[in-house]
UniProtKB/TrEMBL annotation, chain B:
Mg(2+) binds at E26, V305. Pfam families: Complex1_49kDa, NiFeSe_Hases. Gene3D superfamilies: Cytochrome-c3 Hydrogenase, chain B. GO terms for molecular function: NAD binding; nickel cation binding; oxidoreductase activity, acting on NAD(P)H; quinone binding. The keyword Transferase does not apply. Fe cation binds at C48, C341. It comes from the Archaea. PANTHER family: FORMATE HYDROGENLYASE SUBUNIT 5-RELATED (PTHR43485:SF1), HYDROGENASE-4 COMPONENT G (PTHR43485). Ni(2+) binds at C45, C48, C338. The lineage of its organism: Archaea, Thermoproteota, Thermoprotei, Desulfurococcales, Desulfurococcaceae. This is NADH-quinone oxidoreductase subunit D. SUPFAM superfamilies: HydB/Nqo4-like (SSF56762). Keywords: Iron, Magnesium, Metal-binding, Nickel, Oxidoreductase.
Length: 154, 367, 145
């Protein structure tokens, strides 16, 4: 695929069928809400469509939406030829927060998944390197507390 | 801290032990008002405090729906570029010290003082600038200060050029850094490595060019990319970037737009309305991202900070394998970790565990 | 005591970061460069903890780092002194109230001198070291009587 065609390829055309809702975060970041079972498929397709060296997972941000009873996971993905960052957003139930890991497709997700597990308690199925105490001190982890949750007490 | 497992001289496994620097900042940012957040976020990293404050303030401005004037934007870029110069100088000085080049370390630290003085003239602080505020900046400069900063930069420029030439030609440096810690382009993107680490391996990415925030849409600069992918390439990218930053600072000081730069803090809104913003900035170490969610109170609902070292250090354990133990500090320093991360390492050699300083590992050269 | 007198003439520093933003660390580093000339006081960085006389603590003592701080302090031979540099080493600075911090360096080791600032200038750090040396001199003056 030539450079020009990759730039013009809209990510919506790559993952559109998986998208449940589209919003935007300022300034001009498109947010695509997809089902948690489709995250791996979406990321794989983006890498295949734009090329291994043109896409990277920039940030994984977990948000505790306690009033809605869910945890929100936001995957910020940078598409270099388009100079654009898109957001893949998904929700997991707060009582059993779990989603499939990305580290076998994108080893760089290791840092973000480790942090989200240690601070919010989201399980990443298939990631055997998750551990408590990666960041959080022992006296907090020994109480089973995930400090970034809205109802955390330490 | 690095946990290095060695079989003889060869590295067979590296584990990254973190948490020593974990201060629970994201929770603190939820517990304090979003104005206090400007000062808390700056102190996440003292070496790159202006970029932290800038990206946080821009995120808050997006949620509030306000925008700073052109003069404030130029002054913000000036503060950030001065910081880039001093940060690149200090990591290169530390690389020199790790290699045993104490004199070079001292010389670079002496010349760095000019840049610290320039930062102090501009922002009022040598290290922590506390210069940013939603809506603009907190101090302005007059012609005297402008001339003083230009004067200081004129003194630094020949020194930067000299150090750059040294790193490119001096065999003591080039022999220790060439072909050490080679990263291929797909290693970079698959492991989410950012900044000079990525640009040293041929990936042309720079948030200043991609997002064009603050005044970067009006200031010309080159994105420095090298293709060798070794530690030497990464350090040379930093020297070239420091020289580019110096040119940008001189351009800014001679093309400052008129207008109001300082914010009247009494007139600022008290509440952060609902809304979300994802802002990025090119810190000296790489792409720094903030994700801010407002909740209609004076405290943000969520602030997620992802520093460049978070990716570069935690995800780079694979890159030490099969190099000799003496190469480990060189590779680590070429990723530009914060000093605190570099203090100590655990060396597990032939089953025996030792706590060592990184400087001592370098002297364990083979033959 | 003779050993205290010797420290006054050539105190060797050991620097330990307990979770700082590195602001205080680079100012401590800068204070040890020729521009500020610490060697006129006989001050220099010790090659290892066993040779250290003065422990310089920077950072908002995180719980994980506090364990190592205590171990480091115990490894130092007596007589030994501690300087806490920066607002964070005093009580956490801007990070006060976090789940990951202890209540400052004094919670872990006995501190002799506090140097306020965020970060303190290299001149202030040298000033603090000199004040400690004066305090040590008074101590040795009392002991020798």
């Amino acid at each position: 695929m030539t450079e020009a065609r990759v730039e013009e390829l809209d990510p919506k055309n790559v993952i559109g069928d998986l998208v449940v809702k589209e919003e935007f975060a300022r300034p001009n970041r498109r947010v695509f809400t997809i089902d948690k079972s489709s995250i791996r498929e979406a990321v794989s397709r983006l890498i295949k469509a734009y090329g291994e060296t043109s896409v990277y997972v920039s940030t994984i941000a977990g948000v505790d939406r306690i009033e809605q009873g869910v945890m929100e996971l936001n995957y910020f993905i940078s598409i270099l030829p388009r100079k654009e960052v898109i957001v893949l957003r998904t929700q997991v139930p707060r009582t059993q927060p779990a989603v499939d890991t990305l580290i076998d497709i994108v080893p760089g997700a290791f840092a973000g998944e480790s942090e989200t597990f240690d601070l919010l308690g989201v399980q990443f199925n298939g990631n055997k390197l998750l551990k408590r105490g990666f960041f959080v001190p022992e006296d907090v982890t020994s109480k089973g507390v995930y400090p970034l949750r809205k109802d955390a007490k330490w | 801290m690095l946990k290095v497992y060695a079989d003889g001289e060869e590295v067979v496994k590296v584990e990254i032990n973190t948490g020593y620097n974990h201060r629970g900042v994201e929770k603190l940012l939820e517990m304090n008002s979003f104005y206090k957040g400007v000062f808390i976020s700056a102190r996440i990293c003292g070496i790159c405090n202006t970029v932290h404050a800038d990206v946080y303030v821009r995120g808050v401005e997006h949620v509030l729906g306000i925008e700073p004037g052109p003069r404030a934007k130029y002054l913000r870029v000036l503060a950030m570029e001065l910081e880039r110069i001093h940060s690149h100088m200090i990591i290169n000085a530390i690389m020199a010290e790790i290699l045993g080049f104490d004199t070079l370390f001292m010389l670079m630290m002496r010349d760095r003082e000019y840049v610290m003085k320039a930062k102090e003239v501009l922002t009022g602080g040598r290290v922590i600038a506390d210069y940013f505020m939603p809506g603009g900046v907190r101090r302005d400069i007059d012609d005297t200060k402008r001339e003083r900063i230009l004067d200081l930069l004129k003194k630094v420029k020949p020194r930067l050029e000299y150090y750059r030439k040294l790193f490119e030609t001096d065999p003591t440096i080039t022999n220790r850094l060439s072909d050490v810690g080679v990263l291929k382009p797909r290693d970079i993107t698959l492991h989410s490595l950012v900044g000079p680490v990525a640009r040293g391996s041929g990936i042309k990415t720079d948030v200043r060019m991609e997002d064009k925030y603050d005044a970067y849409d009006e200031i010309d600069f080159n994105v420095i990319v090298r293709t060798e992918g070794d530690s030497l390439a990464r350090m040379l990218v930093r020297w070239d970037e420091a020289l580019e930053s110096l040119k940008m600072c001189e351009y800014i000081l001679t093309h400052l737009p008129q207008g109001q730069a300082v914010v009247d803090e009494r007139k600022l809104p008290r509440v952060l309305p609902p809304g979300e913003a994802f802002t990025r900035v090119e810190a000296p170490r790489g792409e720094l991202t903030y994700y801010i969610i407002g909740g209609g109170r004076d405290r943000p609902y969520r602030v997620k900070v992802r520093t460049p070292s978070f990716n570069n250090i935690i995800n780079s354990g694979f890159s030490y394998l099969r190099y000799s133990i003496a190469d480990v500090p060189v590779i680590l320093v070429s990723y530009d970790p914060c000093i605190s991360c570099m203090e100590r390492a655990v060396l597990i050699k032939d089953g025996e565990k030792k706590y060592v300083r990184l400087k001592d590992i370098v002297s364990m050269k083979r033959g | 005591m003779l050993s205290i007198k010797l420290i006054r003439y050539s105190p060797w520093l050991v620097h330990f970061n307990t979770g700082a933003c590195n602001g205080c660390d680079i100012e401590v580093l800068a204070a040890l460069t020729p521009h500020y000339d610490p060697e006129r006081f006989g001050v220099r960085l010790a090659p290892s903890i066993r040779h250290g006389d003065i422990l310089i603590v920077t950072g908002a003592v995180t719980k994980k780092a506090a364990v190592r701080l205590k171990r480091l302090y115990d490894q130092m031979p007596s007589p030994k002194f501690v300087i806490a540099v920066g607002a964070c080493a005093y009580d956490g600075g801007v990070f006060k109230g976090s789940y990951a911090l202890r209540r400052g360096a004094k919670d872990v080791v006995p501190v002799d001198v506090y140097i306020p600032g965020c970060p303190p200038r290299p001149e202030a750090i040298l000033n603090g070291i000199v004040k400690l040396l004066q305090k040590i001199e008074k101590l040795s003056g009392v002991e020798s009587k």
